[in-house]
Automatic annotation (TrEMBL):
Limits of the Ketosynthase family 3 (KS3) domain: 85-469
Keyword Phosphoprotein appears in the UniProt entry: yes
GO CC annotation: cytoplasm; plasma membrane
Organism of derivation: Amycolatopsis camponoti
Keywords: Phosphopantetheine, Phosphoprotein, Transferase
Cited InterPro entries: AB_hydrolase_fold (IPR029058), Ac_transferase_dom_sf (IPR001227), ACP-like_sf (IPR036736), Acyl_transferase_dom (IPR014043), Acyl_Trfase/lysoPLipase (IPR016035), Ketoacyl_synth_C (IPR014031), Ketoacyl_synth_N (IPR014030), KR_dom (IPR057326)
Origin superkingdom: Bacteria
GO process terms (BP): DIM/DIP cell wall layer assembly; fatty acid biosynthetic process
GO molecular function annotations of the record: fatty acid synthase activity; phosphopantetheine binding
Protein name as catalogued: Modular polyketide synthase
Ranges of Low complexity composition bias in the record: 406-417
């Protein structure tokens, strides 16, 4: 049946038979449906036609050609349907959807579970919206804040999602640079009319450097699927080798037509299937065919399947938008027995518009990959929908689809709400369409899972894609079973430290979940080859799963382990010098494991095997596998191993930048450099070894002396044969002379060791001629690699490498240190020792301490471990190839997605973003504009780490408003004044108002009220342009194009200065045209174009006063976020020491805690309080992980005396704890403030004793003791924790957003304490009627115009508070406020603060004031060293305020920042904050100048505390001395190092000891004596040595009659100082007030003369104690202050005071109260001045002072 006539006859007869119409009555032009042909019969006819014509059945044929005539015309011609194309592989997907979905795994979980992903809309309307639509990691992609703010949000989405999709595909994005990769994006121009859609795709191509097609498609709802079609076509046409197909929808503003819209982005990575299989890519699914068209759904379906070579009847599932035309097309091609499964993403995510198709495709790809169809949240529509258009499934407000109705064939697919405008007939007799309303398997109707994805646009443009499953790669038979084998290098990287920590933590979590069955080699390979290696890098080198997780967790917490390697990739990758050591590195069976495990090494050995059999007479491979036999075998064996190891390095892509050798190692170096072939080198080694074996054993010694020191000694029989390092050499001589020399060196406390050997000495002269003769005819070549010789006098000279050179190599001294020094001087910084064990590296390190040294093998660390770690070192430093060569193939794993660090960038289109949108107001004389800014937009304008709106910004606001108001480009501003700095901590609205008279005002609103910030006068500028300043006489600065006014000011004003006002500014043109700025000494600044036109002229620029700090930067508070515990490490048994205050409640909880710890496998120990003196000895015998101190009920400490007793007990425990034991304080909350003072202690300990990691854990009565056991065992880093109903919360210091408050008014106020004087003046100035004072005089503070009443007495005494209140309320005057500012005297802090507050509380119980302020300090909020008394008293006040508020009483504490840790704050700044504090409605507010960088620099340990994570910079924190030493020694010994085991028992030998000493000297600046290292010292001993710490004991009185030096405060602080005060008896006094100090002092020294001293607050106590003693007639010789700050209102003292001031500190107010003050500046800062090495200077000065060797007199301050 080929001719038209035959085809017409067959059709006429067949249709007549189906319809019952006589053939002669059939009109070939009438549509078949009108003749009565059903859709089922139409499918039958189409199938039969396909068979008769020999074509694939086209089930949509009769729909496209509805009459016999049309069918004949279409079928009689050639088959024009699309032909089958090559399948396209889907390699990876990326998405960003509502509900926080940002990965394939998250999307699949949401689909399976039917999770509710509805996000908060930008304004109230239904829909599924992204919660962080303006969030973007701009820094990751290299954009600054201005570029990010001006960028289309859809472009931002696409950049991040593309990166994630490539990672999911296992493609490192950097590998695509310059490649033929196409970008096809579906996006609607209507979504964001402010931006050009073309840059969405172009921006991705530009940032990733992709050179293929870059296309944006806009066909409304079908955009993304049309983009997929074009991407597939580009691959087929060869236009691209890889394509990225994407769709994105971000609505601004969203339509309001009743449709449920959604936002999102999706990306798929596509490649030709043949290419994907060639490249070993993972194939998630394959696209078999695709097609597009307009308003012809059946045609589109048919074309897509024609390309796919399939039939719609074989499709299992269609992901569809649900238009009725598509429903009918699908229905006509199905049978009752094989229902079409359908679903739609719109039910879960709303109408995703341009992104719909791509998200639907991703869903289908994931369903095929997981072999499961997820349920769809859809409902079936009514059928009253148009035939074409943007019809789709919609979210179901009710139950799922009625499947019974479907089964009966009556249900239909339908539209979104609001679109039921065109009724149409129901396909009631259609085949079944079945929505997937629950998770189900694939039917596989054709034996293969096959799906279709459809999309249609509002204009009728549609697309369809046919997708099929692809076989998954076979899983390993025993997943995860290959741990503990070959060591692997597991890498992570990022662009920032915080992102690196998150990436490590995410990977650790992944290993505990989806990755728990992943083989280690697969994971290491995937991380190495299928992830981008960013600049900040880390690696964990291990074969142990537990060690990998531990290393990743340590990285996530900012720490490290012995398996962790850190580095930063530089601009120039490392190229190491290969160092070949001589004799002594060998060990039995070296290389045996590598022969079996490392193919590259095995190949290198195999290449040498024939040479060794022919020339050395033995098998190199065999010798490496067995112990040594003949000693003569060792030299050639080492040579062969070195040459093979060099080949191994080269096989990993590591080429030497240079080579150098030590003695016989020079032979291998010459071979590797290309100067000799391996055979010639082996001949030299064999001849050399044979001749040396014939010589009698010689005597040598290695001594820790330089060659010059050896020559200076009178040993004529001793000669230097090796210059190993500047401080070490090898000598030869007689046995007697060497014995004397070694004894002499030992006596110096240095290292010496006897050796047997003859090389490089006169003993070899007898064999030199035979050696020359045995070398034969050498044929050396010029080296191909730089060669440093250790033979010739000039290390850089190129040797001849002939027989004469090798004779000199055997005879002349080895000049190794000179060769190394030359290499270092030439810029080499990396040295790799190519040997079986690193014996030359210690000498390299001693010669040049700043270099990086790496071993190849190590007999201690295992052969493969050392090499793997060295590879990791090179990789983290930026070497591009080492891991690619180690892992040539890698699987694709579903690793965690990128850890984006997003900031908010509100979209601002190109052009001027200011002054914002015009706002209509009823007053015709006012013109108003408004715009919104957020903190992230001001990242480049910060004051004290808080974003501020600059004065130039206010200027731009009024200038832009003026240009719009006057309709001209030339305007002027006069008298612009910034009245108040605008700190932007959240979303802030800016309002610019210009009146007709030219008055301009800028206001801001961040809270409930508007605040005026700037005023000016504006007008049109009609004057002539000013003359340009002379470039010869004036300052000229070039500026970047479009820098504008802000750039002009930044270029001309002094660095660090900020303007806060302008006398006159004239804007005469577009400032973006300015290219240079001019300035003169009179304060004129001009912005000038390239043509010399002045476009801006500034006059009378006023600069902000130095040190101005915005209020938002000074306000702090504590939040308590819910913070789950990290996982508790398993497999480790811990011991805990439980101490109590012996209160019954504490004893009971200690017993319960002991039982809970025992149940968890731990051990609990106890020690009575009476035996605390034995605590050091107890802990020495029974090492514990931590000490836990449990307290009794809070009500037991209502009396301040009882609280202080407890504080003294706790401090006595702390004084006896070693540096590596964690300390927990445990309290039980009851709501009252009794024990809250311990918060202050913990805050102080964070500064003074960071190594203790002191933590306060407060549990309520409803939290089980089990949670406390878990808290201890977890090792969580938080230092303030609350358990409430078994839920954990942890304290975080944060900035507090304060809004402007109202001033006080008429009424009475009570002010206590001298610190309240400024507040009293402020109250008087703000309308106070009466001020009642206690502890200060109205005359002294200058109050006038107000009724001042002074009540004498101590506020802590009974009755005084009542008299204050009575005086305030006399005559019926209302009591408006109380300011409790007592506590100026360090001697009575607790009494005046704590007891005084209670007295005031009781006195106002019946008539509380409107507000109540308690003046606290930052010591209780932030902490401060040496401020225990102040911090604990103030912490009690903080808790007392909270306690009052829970009872409905007003109370707020103000934690003023008056501490050496913080910058001083002017009184005016403090008073400015008071209205905001009163309006804040918080129990406490900290007002302080916290310079985060300065604090982090002085107290780097704080960076490890989560408490400070929101305010201190996220920088790597140095480890403790013990941790650093552990890392050093573990890396040298290759294993975990117990704290108490002697290092020699762990394998420490002399060479390792030298390396450990060199590393410790670099790390700590302290030289460890070798006798200490080799004499049985353990890690604890070494840590104590380098830190100068010892157990806290008093030093003995070695000189009777010498009065002791009594030091006040924490005794641990003074340990390094005491070690250096030889012969000076010392005592310690720990007390929190002067009374306690005097009493304790009398116990240790009943009478004078006294010599007192102290650091920080301890110095203040020493000073006050000296003043008290002097007043009672006692003799005080000297008061020594270590960086202490004078207390406020300190009384004068006539005795001698010596202040040792840190280099960065001021004299701190002592000159005003000390008649005889001597000041010495010492190195270090407040925290480190008493730590090594800085402590040496104050110790020397103090020793001289105490010996009377300093001159008396006052030092000018």
């Amino acid at each position: 049946m080929t001719g038209p006539g035959e085809l017409r006859r067959w059709l006429t007869e067949r249709i007549a038979g189906l319809t019952g119409v006589a053939p002669e009555h059939l009109d070939a032009r009438v549509p078949l449906a009108e003749l009565g042909l059903s859709s089922r019969d139409a499918v039958t006819v189409a199938a039969e036609l396909g068979e008769r014509l020999g074509r694939e059945p086209d089930l949509g044929l009769l729909g496209r050609h509805p009459s016999i005539a049309a069918l004949v015309t279409a079928l009689a011609g050639p088959d024009t349907r699309p032909r089958t194309a090559e399948p396209v592989a889907v390699l990876g997907v990326g998405c960003r959807l509502p509900g926080g979905i940002e990965s394939a795994d998250q999307l699949w979980h949401a689909l399976l579970t039917g999770a509710d992903v509805t996000g908060p809309p930008p304004d109230p309307r239904p829909g599924d919206f992204l919660s962080d639509v303006n969030g973007f990691d701009a820094a990751f992609f290299g954009f600054d804040a201005a570029e990010a703010a001006a960028m289309d949000p859809r472009r931002r989405f696409l950049l991040e999602t593309t990166w994630a999709a490539l990672e999911h595909a296992g493609i490192a994005p950097g590998t695509l640079r310059g490649s033929r990769t196409g970008v096809f994006v579906g996006a609607s121009a209507a979504d964001h009319a402010l931006f050009a859609a073309s840059m969405i795709a172009n921006g991705v191509s530009e940032r990733f450097d992709l050179r293929g097609p870059s296309v944006v498609v806009d066909t409304a709802g079908s955009s993304a699927l049309v983009a997929v079609h074009q991407a597939v076509r580009a691959l087929a046409a060869g236009e691209a080798d890889l394509t990225l197909a994407a769709g994105v929808q971000v609505l601004s503003p969203p339509p309001r037509d009743g449709t449920v819209y959604g936002e999102g982005c999706g990306v798929v990575v596509l490649k030709r299937l043949t290419d994907a299989r060639r490249d070993a890519d993972r194939v998630l699914a394959v696209i078999r065919g695709s097609a597009t068209g307009w308003a012809a759904q059946e045609q589109i379906l048919a074309d897509a399947h024609a390309v796919a070579g399939s039939s719609l009847s074989t499709v299992d599932y269609v992901e569809t938008q649900g238009g009725s035309a598509e429903a009918q097309a699908l229905a006509r091609n199905r049978s009752l027995q094989r229902p079409m499964l359908v679903g739609s993403m719109s039910g879960s995510f709303g109408d995703l518009g341009a992104a719909s198709g791509i998200v639907g495709l991703i869903k289908v790809v994931l369903a095929l990959w997981h072999d499961r169809l997820p349920p769809s949240r859809v409902r079936l529509p009514s059928g009253n929908e148009p035939a074409t258009g943007h019809d789709q499934f919609v979210p179901s407000p009710g139950p799922p689809a009625n499947t019974a109705e479907l089964a009966a064939g009556r249900a239909r697919l339908g539209p979104a709400p609001g679109r039921d405008r065109h009724p149409r007939a129901s396909p009631g007799d259609s085949p079944r369409l079945s929505p997937v309303d629950k998770s189900t398997g694939w039917p596989r109707y054709a034996g293969t899972a096959r799906a279709g994805v459809s999309a249609s646009g509002a204009g009728g443009s549609g697309a369809h894609v046919v997708v099929e499953e692809w076989p998954k790669p076979l899983e390993p038979a025993t997943p995860g079973s290959r741990w503990n084998g070959r060591p692997q290098v597991f890498t992570v990287s990022a662009r920032s430290e915080s992102a690196l920590r998150r990436r490590a933590g995410d990977l650790a979590d992944w290993l505990a979940g989806p990755g728990r069955v992943t083989a280690p080699g697969d994971l290491a390979a995937a991380l190495a080859r299928r992830r981008e290696h960013l600049p900040l890098r880390a690696a964990v080198v291990t074969s142990s799963r537990a060690a990998l997780v531990a290393g990743l967790r340590a990285l996530a917490d900012g720490g490290t382990t012995k398996d962790v390697v850190r580095g930063t990739a530089g601009q120039v990758p490392p190229r190491p010098v290969f160092v070949f050591s001589g004799a002594g590195a060998q060990w039995p069976a070296m290389g045996r494991r590598m022969l079996g495990a490392e193919p590259e090494f095995r190949a290198a050995v195999g290449a040498l095997e024939p040479l060794f059999l022919a020339k050395a007479g033995f098998s190199l491979r065999g010798a490496l596998r067995r112990p040594f036999g003949d000693p003569a075998v060792v030299p050639p064996l080492v040579f062969g191993l070195q040459v093979a190891l060099a080949g191994w390095w080269r096989a990993h892509g590591v080429e030497p930048a240079a080579v150098l050798g030590h003695s016989a190692g020079e032979i291998a170096a010459a071979v590797v450099a290309g100067a000799l072939d391996a055979g010639a080198g082996l001949d030299i080694v064999v001849s050399r070894a044979n001749l040396l074996s014939q010589l009698p054993a010689g005597t040598m010694a290695v001594v820790e002396l330089s060659a010059a020191e050896v020559r200076a000694l009178d040993f004529p029989g001793i000669t230097v044969v090796e210059h190993a390092s500047p401080a070490q050499c090898t000598v030869a001589g007689t046995a007697e002379d060497l014995a004397v020399l070694v004894s002499h060196v030992d006596g110096l406390g240095r290292w010496a060791r006897r050796l047997a050997g003859t090389t490089n000495s006169a003993a070899v002269e007898t064999i030199l001629d035979r050696f020359r003769a045995g070398l034969g005819d050498l044929r050396p070549r010029p080296p191909e690699t730089a060669y440093y010789t250790s033979v010739l006098d000039d290390p850089r000279a190129t040797p001849a490498f002939d027989a004469g050179y090798w004779m000199a190599n055997l005879r002349r001294p080895v000049r190794f240190t000179q060769a190394v020094a030359a290499a270092v001087a030439d810029g080499h910084r990396w040295f790799v020792e190519v040997s079986p064990h690193p014996i030359a590296l210690p000498a390299v390190e001693q010669t040049a301490g700043s270099v990086r040294t790496l071993p190849t093998l190590s007999r201690r660390d295992g052969e493969e471990n050392a090499f793997a770690r060295s590879l990791a070192e090179l990789h983290t430093a930026g070497h591009p190839a080492v891991l690619d060569r180690r892992y040539p193939e890698a699987p694709v794993l579903d690793l965690p997605p990128p850890p984006w660090e997003r900031r908010t960038f509100r979209p601002r289109p190109a052009g001027h973003p200011l002054p914002g949108a015009r706002v209509e107001v009823p007053d015709e004389g006012r013109h108003l504009w408004q715009t919104t800014i957020v903190a992230e937009e001001l990242d480049e304008h910060r004051a004290h780490d808080v974003p501020v709106f600059p004065a130039a910004g206010f200027l731009e606001l009024v200038l832009a408003g003026a240009r719009e108001r006057f309709g001209t480009g030339s305007v002027r501003v006069d008298g612009l004044e910034v009245h108040r700095m605008l700190a932007v901590t959240g979303e802030t609205v800016l309002s610019t108002e210009i009146r007709d008279d030219g008055a301009a005002v800028v206001r801001a609103k961040a809270g409930a009220s508007w605040v005026r910030h700037a005023t000016a006068w504006v007008s049109a500028d009609t004057e002539p342009a000013p003359a340009i300043l002379s470039e010869v006489d004036e300052r000229t600065r070039p500026i970047a194009p479009k820098s504008g006014l802000a750039g002009t000011l930044a270029a001309t004003l002094p660095e660090g200065s900020l303007p806060d006002g302008f006398g006159r500014v004239r804007l005469l043109g577009d400032p973006g045209r300015g290219v240079r700025c001019l300035a003169d000494d009179a304060g004129t600044v001009q912005l000038v174009t390239r043509d010399g036109e002045v476009v801006a002229d500034f006059r009378d620029i006023r600069l902000q006063a130095p040190g101005t700090v915005p209020l938002a930067a000074r306000a702090f508070g504590i939040t308590w976020p819910r913070t789950p515990l990290p996982p508790v490490p398993s497999g480790r048994r811990n011991s805990w020491l439980l101490l109590t205050d012996e209160h019954p409640a504490a004893l009971g909880r200690a017993v319960a805690l002991a039982l809970a710890l025992a149940a968890a496998g731990d051990e609990a120990l106890s020690l009575p309080q009476d035996d605390l003196g034995e605590l050091p000895a107890f802990l020495a015998e029974r090492p514990v992980r931590g000490v836990v101190f449990l307290t009794g009920a809070p009500h037991a400490y209502r009396d301040p005396e009882d609280a202080q007793d407890l504080l003294r007990t706790v401090r006595s425990v702390l004084a006896r704890l070693a540096f590596d034991i964690r300390f927990h304080l445990v309290t039980q909350s009851s709501g009252e403030p009794g024990l809250a003072f311990l918060r202050g202690l913990v805050r102080v300990l964070a500064f003074e004793r960071p190594e203790l990691r002191a933590t306060l854990v407060d549990c309520d009565a409803r939290s089980e003791v089990d949670v406390l056991a878990r808290e201890l065992r977890s090792g969580a880093p938080d230092d303030e924790v609350r358990w409430r109903r078994d839920v954990r919360y942890a304290a975080r210091l944060t900035r507090v957003p304060l809004v402007d408050g109202v001033s006080t008014g008429p009424g009475a106020y009570v002010v206590t304490g001298a610190r309240g004087s400024a507040t009293a003046r402020w109250l008087a100035g703000n309308g106070a009627t009466r001020i009642v004072l206690c502890g200060l005089s109205g005359d002294d503070i200058g109050l006038s115009g107000v009724d001042v009443v002074v009540v004498a007495g101590d506020i802590a005494e009974p009755g005084v508070a009542e008299r204050l209140v009575a005086a305030a309320t006399a005559d019926g005057l209302p009591l408006r406020g109380i300011v409790h500012a007592a506590g100026d005297d360090v001697a009575s802090l607790w009494r005046s603060k704590v007891l005084g507050a209670r007295r005031l509380h009781d006195a106002t119980a019946d008539a509380p004031p409107d507000w109540w302020l308690l003046y606290s300090s930052s010591a209780s909020l932030i902490g401060a060293p040496g401020r225990t008394a102040l911090a604990t008293a103030d912490a009690w006040l903080d808790a007392f305020a909270t306690w009052r508020r829970t009872r409905g009483l007003p109370a707020t504490t103000v934690n003023w920042g008056a501490d050496p840790v913080l910058d001083p704050m002017p009184v005016a700044e403090a008073l400015e904050a008071l209205p905001a504090v009163l309006a804040a409605d918080r129990s406490s507010v900290g007002i302080a100048r916290l310079d985060a960088g300065r604090v982090a620099g002085r107290f780097p340990e704080l960076g490890r505390r989560p408490f400070f994570s929101a305010v201190l910079p996220a920088v790597p924190v140095p480890e403790t001395a013990h941790e650093r030493l552990t890392t050093i020694v573990a890396r040298l010994l290759g294993d975990a190092v117990p704290r108490d085991v002697p290092l020699v028992e762990l394998g420490l030998d002399s060479l390792t000891a030298m390396r450990a000493r060199a590393a410790a000297e670099r790390e700590f600046g302290v030289t460890l004596p070798v006798p200490l290292l080799l004499g049985g010292a353990n890690l604890k001993d070494l840590a104590e040595y380098v830190t100068g710490t010892r157990a806290p004991v008093a030093t003995p009185d070695r000189r009777p009659g010498i009065p002791p030096l009594v030091l006040f405060g924490e005794s641990m602080v003074y340990r390094p100082l005491l070690d250096r005060l030889e012969g000076v008896p010392c005592r310690g006094v720990e007390a929190s007030d002067v009374e306690g100090c005097v009493a304790s002092l009398r116990e240790v020294q009943p009478s004078g003369p006294y010599r007192l001293g102290g650091w920080a607050a301890g110095g203040v106590l020493a000073f006050e104690t000296a003043r008290r003693l002097a007043a009672s007639g006692e003799r005080v010789d000297v008061v020594v202050l270590f960086d202490s700050e004078a207390p406020l209102g300190a009384e004068s003292y006539a005795g001698r005071v010596v202040l040792y001031r840190a280099a960065d500190a001021a004299a701190a107010g002592w000159a005003a109260c000390c008649a005889d003050l001597h000041v010495e500046t010492v190195p270090g800062d407040h925290r480190t001045m008493l730590d090594p090495p800085h402590v040496a200077v104050p110790a020397r000065l103090l020793a001289a002072e105490l010996a009377g060797r300093t001159s008396p007199g006052i030092t000018p301050v």
